[in-house]
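Entry 14. Ran structure prediction on the chain below.
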Amino acid sequence: MESSTAKPPAWYWVVSALALLWMLFGVLAWFADLMMDESALAQMSDAQRHLYASRPQWVFVVYAIAIFSGLIGAIGLLLRKSWTIPALAVSLVAVVVQFGYTLLGMDAVRVLGAGAALPFPIVIFAIGALLLWFATRSRKSGWIQA
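Output, structure tokens:
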């Protein structure tokens, strides 16, 4: 059953397209992580190699959930679908689990230093939270299905 939706402003499409582009970069990063070879590992610092080698497999799975549910959410924004918000919420929860474990459970801040360990997770969380807020606001505005 289709819900009627209001026509979104032009900037809605710009934000949605940027969200898709951001998530596609995330997919590329995930595949690069998946295909990490010895030459790529050799370019890392000893501390980075240690964290990479000691990361539990479930953290990599949660990383996949974060990025692919985010991609689904970004596609949902472009299609103006009701499942956009749950997909982006799953993505944000997975980001919190992934980086929460990496930063606290693996002690990445101590191993790498705050300047190296914190900025990227903070940016990723902030963008995820903003996209979830944007999708929620878009539904309230009638731009995506309720």
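Residues 10-33+46-140 form one domain. Will compare against last week's run tomorrow.
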